[in-house]
Amino acid sequence: MLTYLLSVLAACANAISSVLQRKANREMPPELALRPKLIGELLRQPVWLAGLAGVVVGFLLQAAALGRGELSVVEPILVCELPLTLFLAARVFRAPLRPREAGAALGMAAGLAGLLFFLAPSAGHAQEVPWYEWLLAGAATMVATAAAFEWARRGRVARDQREGSARRAAGFGMAAGCQFGLTAAFIKAVTVRFGEAGIAGVFTGWELYCMIVCGALAMFLLQSAMHAGRLVAAQPALTLTDPLVSVLWGVTVFGEMVRGGLYLLFAAASGLLLAACVVILSRSPAIGEAETRPLRGG
Predict the structure, then answer these.
(1) pLDDT over threshold 70, residue 293
(2) Which of residues 113 and 281 earns the better pLDDT score?
(3) Number of neighbouring beta carbons within 10 Å of residue 53
(4) pLDDT tens digits for range 180-203
(5) What span, in angstroms and rounded, lies between the C-alpha atoms of 134 and 206?
(6) Rounded (5°) CA angle 146-147-151
(7) Which of 209, 208, 237, 210 is nearest to 224 (CA)?
(8) CA angle, 298 then 159 then 239, to 5°
(9) Distance of CA 113 to the CA centre of its chain
(10) d(Cα 241, Cα 249) in Å, to the nearest integer?
(11) What residues pair up with 229 in beta bridges, in sequence order?
(12) Domain regions of the chain by residue span
């Protein structure tokens, strides 16, 4: 039960962080796209720094959850980040929510609950993964990241940052999601090493440094997504790609077991319900129109 609570709290922290980061990024000029100078400019924004604090809190909560539970349990719960983000965005950018959005959020909750219940993921062997599996799975994740990044990079750069480019925001969001999923795999490995060798073992192990590098790349890609376009384009791609990559790592690399047979069919139906509700939320006119409005005093 504590694993579920920590995961939900991590989703809440991530949602707050996403809205604050988008609020800061939409004021940045288009010519800063994909440039390190973008981070330098954002560091001067108190709103963005508050969002960064939210990232840190979310990371710590996620690490605590992964220390107690499995990747294929913790990461799907983080999908809750999407409705929380979009609802908070509607509040910050001043737009009333409609029954459509509330219904989609309930549908997401039902789909997520069904997915976890029917799959019923069980513990794997994260402490016994050979080096070549890490290498192959890591390379595959990096290829997926590069493909999403290149697809986004080829999109049009919008002149109006409040409107943005849906393709670039979604593509960079997918790339960031891939990297956050890979980072979650390394977080899991770090927690395993901590349990086996203590804090000294964490700092002498390679997993910590891979986690830092992947996490930094994920943060850069996230800022690129937030700078490229609106949350309704970036957030669904980010929120779904992250747990998808994490679950694939959990099942194929860490050996986490899920139920098959008829349970798998019901799990697929729950996943389709979840995906459909994500699409409904991502196309919300109430939230999308709100984000293009200038903020008072901004």
Answers:
(1) no
(2) 113
(3) 14
(4) 999 999 999 999 899 888 999 999
(5) 12
(6) 115
(7) 237
(8) 75
(9) 18
(10) 12
(11) 164
(12) 2-291
pLDDT in tens, 18-57: 889 888 887 788 777 777 888 888 898 999 999 999 999 9
For residue 256 the two structure tokens come to 């986490």
Distance from C-alpha of 1 to C-alpha of 68, rounded to nearest angstrom: 10
Q: What is the spatial distance between Cα 54 and Cα 170, in angstroms, rounded to a whole number?
A: 22
Nearest of 285, 286, 159, 176 to residue 229 by alpha carbon:
159
**3-state secondary structure string across the chain:** CHHHHHHHHHHHHHHHHHHHHHHHHCCCCHHHCCCCHHHHHHCCCHHHHHHHHHHHHHHHHHHHHHHHCCHHHHHHHHHHHHHHHHHHHHHHCCCCCCHHHHHHHHHHHHHHHHHHHHHCCECCCHHHCCHHHHHHHHHHHHHHHHHHHHHHHCCCCCCCCCCECHHHHHHHHHHHHHHHHHHHHHHHHHHHHHHHHHHHHHHHCHHHHHHHHHHHHHHHHHHHHHHHECHHHHHHHHHHHHHHHHHHHHHHCCCCECCCCHHHHHHHHHHHHHHHHHHHHHCCHHHHHHHCCCCCCC
Residue pair 79/246 in contact (Cβ under 8 Å)? The answer is: no
Q: How many residues does the chain have?
A: 298
Which stretch, 77-91, 181-195, 231-245, 274-288, has highest mean pLDDT? 181-195
Going by C-alpha positions, the residue among 32, 284, 48, 23 that lies closest to residue 158 is: 32
